[in-house]
Prior knowledge:
Elements: E1 4-11, E2 15-23, E3 28-37, E4 41-42, E5 45-46, H1 49-67, E6 73-78, E7 84-93, E8 105-106, H2 109-118, E9 128-140, E10 143-146, E11 153-154, E12 156-167, H3 168-180, E13 184-190, H4 191-199, H5 202-207, E14 209-214, E15 219-225, E16 228-235, H6 239-250, H7 254-264, E17 277-280, E18 289-292, H8 293-316, E19 328-331, H9 340-348, E20 352-354, H10 373-384, H11 389-393, H12 399-415
Parallel strand pairs: 1-6, 6-13, 14-19, 19-20
Antiparallel strand pairs: 1-2, 2-3, 4-5, 7-12, 8-11, 9-10, 9-12, 14-15, 15-16, 17-18
Helix pairs in contact: 1-3, 4-10, 6-7, 6-8, 8-9
Amino acid sequence: ENKRIITGIDIGTTKIAVVITECSENEICILGFGESPSNGLKKGIVVDMDQTIDSLSKALSEAEKQADVEVEEAFVGMTGDHIKGINYSGVITISKGRNHQPLGQEITTDDIQRVLDHAQSINLASDRRILHVLSQDFKVDDRSGIKNPLGLSGHRLEAKVHLVTSAINVEQDLHGCIEKVGVRVLDFVLEPLASSYSVLDENERKLGVILVDIGGGTTDVIVYHEMGVLHAGAVPLGGQNITYDIAYGIQTTIEQAEKLKCQYGSAKSAMADPEENITISGTSGRENKIISKKKLAEIIEPRMDEILRLVKNEIRKSDHTGEYTFGIVLTGGGSQLEYISDLAQEIFHQPIKIGKPDLKGGMSDKVNSPRYSTSVGLVNYGNNNWKDEKYNQTKNIPSFMKYSLNIIGNYLKKWY
Length: 416
């Protein structure tokens, strides 16, 4: 009775991964896992609906067959350079019908929800909506740095938040693809936020950490300090750019370039073995080639260096001048490149760690890889937030109606 089926769908540029789980408050058991090459998407945006639906169907069918469960609803990851983040704040007066009282009023959950709603009253373009309201901290009267103001007394409550916004049309395209494979979207979740639920712990989020998720089409960034999100954003480059560089550089197919990157790729040419040779099959009647592992690394390193330096620029947008105790956590498929920690250390001058999910038992060995941090994180996010009213109130409403109601609700909060 205390268990529930939760599904996460990671729709990436290079792969679509579906994870079906059985969850309780203290345990997550993997029932089924499916993966297929992602055709029809570019940097998180649908460019071919039919191909996207076909790729989704293959991954979903594989996961459902393993789990012996038909997926009805899912948490879905979202990324792309259409995602924007902004720090904002909201302020309310705490009054319970007795004005000008010298003693403050006790803060209730309604007050907290009211100030968070007020923090969303930002003027957005008509084609954008608020995807997440990520609270940073609260201020009660002149007392700042409060993480949970519930039960405290005061006259004035202020909330500092990080608002993540997305393009409505991009969401609708993804939503349409998922609905056509017979799945309701419970929620779209920012991918680095989802990944943080699978690779970061409470100490890391509290004392300061930066999560960098190197995907196929984009590299996502989320910055934590004192349990709050200071910044979230995306760099429009990822592992696929490295694959194309290899294909161009050594004149081979994209498929073979991807295999070379995964099997022999290195992020530091100075540390790659110049004596280790790789045989590359000729294409379209061309002769085979032999290149050294060092030569391959010399193609990879400049692009990875560019990606990490763009990430560094994205981190600066957090406006945090202090240190991050736990430094940088790299995850995603791109983080599996050999010697990437060494290159990242040179660029960021902070502690570097490779983050991956750490599920126990069942089929967990299939997903305990940086490549599946987002997929597992979507399930963890859903499990942590399962009691949220918005999921329970709309469970029996058709997907397209739920999506419309969420957007209408956001606009009502904004204007009223």
